[in-house]
Amino acid sequence: MPTTPVTATSTSPNGAQETIMLELVDEDGNTIGTAEKLAAHQAPGQLHRAFSVFLFDAQGRLLIQRRALGKYHSPGVWSNTCCGHPYPGEAPFAAAARRTYEELGISPTLLAEAGTVLYNHPDPASGLVEHEYNHLFVGLAQADLRPDPTEIGDTAFVTPAELEERHRSAPFSAWFMSVLDAARPAMRELTGPSGGW
User: What percent of the chain has pLDDT over 70?
Assistant: First the structure.
């Protein structure tokens, strides 16, 4: 099993390394504390707040991304448009919009809440655990993508049939089907009944 760094850090605008903290929650989504990001993902996993974004183009195709190979967790696998964790005290909607811009270089249009889902998915490759209370969002991608290569290795807009085929032939994140299935009602509302979602 690969060794995992002791902490997850980000670089602040002044170049200093900052420890990333997550918001711990109970099964009803109530905040109960905080934990350092990697510590929260160590087995058996601490339940924490997360978000997942699903953006579509004008043809009703879903934007998916392949996570960069340099990421410490689930590198090189396909997943939904954007996912991540709000900072403690940050609204999930604001975090979803922020990370979509940071990762893809776009601000989503008509971003709307699409419910929540709770899951616990161990990742056999890393030994880390995704135990998350996940806030779901759907919206439109109406600008040219400018992916951050440290976050994203590739992107694709896919129809439901193309997603099904890709899911059969390529590795996806452990949480992908949980968030996709939970977001489907809102995806259908956004893309219309003919979209096939």
Answer: 91
